[in-house]
Amino acid sequence: MDTPTPASDRPARPLAGVRVADLSRVLAGPYATMLLADLGAEVVKVEHPELGDDTRSWGPPWAGGESAYYLSVNRGKRSLAVDLKDEEGLTAVRELCARADVVIQNFRPGVIERLGLDHAAVSARNPAVVYCSITGFGPEHAPEGRPGFDIIVQAESGLMAATGEPGGAPCKVGVAMTDVLTGLNAAVAILGALLRARTTGVGEHITASLVNSALSSLVNLTQQALVTGEDPPRLGNAHSTIVPYQAFPTADADIVIAAGNDALYRRLCAALDRADLAEDPRYATNPQRVAHRAELVAEIGATLRARPSEEWVKLLLAAGVPVGKVRGVLDAIRSAEAAGDDVLLGVDHPVAGPMEQIRAGFRLESTPAGTGAGGPLLPPPLLGQHSVEVLRELAVPEDRIGALLERGAVHQSTASGTGIGTIGKDVPR
């Protein structure tokens, strides 16, 4: 991991000075705002004072009483734990949104309007605001307000039908992929809208939905379906239009070979010492290989089973053939680090201590890993860790802050505990 550059010598991150009011929870919205925080934005995460974000109780596993799920998408933020049913608490959040450059929310339809935190209400006070609404099925979807969870959207979008073994049952992707894609789409749209807002003073209302993100992610499969009028078949770890491009068993473990064109196929045949496969007219071009997929895959598989995976990976890489070993998650992380990919960053959590986290999929040359807009990157916050700090910034009088705390409308955590993680550890919900 990188050694942080002194703050005085470090250029500002791209979103330094951008203020984000994060009214979202669970995955898509928090993932988007974490990306904005990684780019230097100041993110305030608004949470319920007793329960917090739903993911705080999604465990085990735990680290210092905090769930691994919550920790994965909330670094770089400050937490304001406030009851939106309390009028003074709600007024403070309205003020937060009025001062923000970006507001992002994923409340159920109708709830955000009743709170007076919808786009119309926020933009009336803050015309340049970039306001992002995240839903499962989009604002025009019928029936209105249909709840969207990743597994439901994977089913409804065709993603599940496209995943799984030939002849087997549809299968969901191993992570909540539609949430992750929606978070990425939201972040991209927010960046574009911020650019316009900064130059014109004109805000934007962005809508991002899990189902649209899922459908757009199917890329060639959706186009294939539109062109043919038929559903693409499930092919397991193979590719619908490229052969060989799939997982193969070796003597000890599976590897993936991606011979994406005719030249790579010939290199593969040479590395396998199978000149007969290169010369066979049935396999001369990719369309012919697709037509004779079963026979060719059987021949390649029989050859690969004769030697262990590490030998094949070394041999095929030397031949210029794209190849990789099928790894478990932890093995993949450690292998990437050992190879110099620098996928990890470190944060110092107030109760879990020093902690490794996965970096975002982008790198900023100007700023080392593990640093934010003004110094070390903030760890995922405890529930309400910054409540008093944020309320003071919003000019809430000290006596009113004390009253909010006294009646439980605002929660302020300390490093001794979160008010939710310990409960989640002992009594999983």
UniProtKB/TrEMBL annotation:
InterPro entries attached to this UniProt entry: CoA-transferase_III_domain, CoA-Trfase_fam_III, CoA-Trfase_III_dom3_sf, CoA-Trfase_III_dom_1_sf
Keyword Chloroplast: no
Listed Pfam families: CoA_transf_3
GO MF, any single term: CoA-transferase activity
Top-rank taxon: Bacteria
Keywords: Transferase
Protein name stated in the entry: Crotonobetainyl-CoA:carnitine CoA-transferase CaiB-like acyl-CoA transferase
Organism: Nocardiopsis mwathae
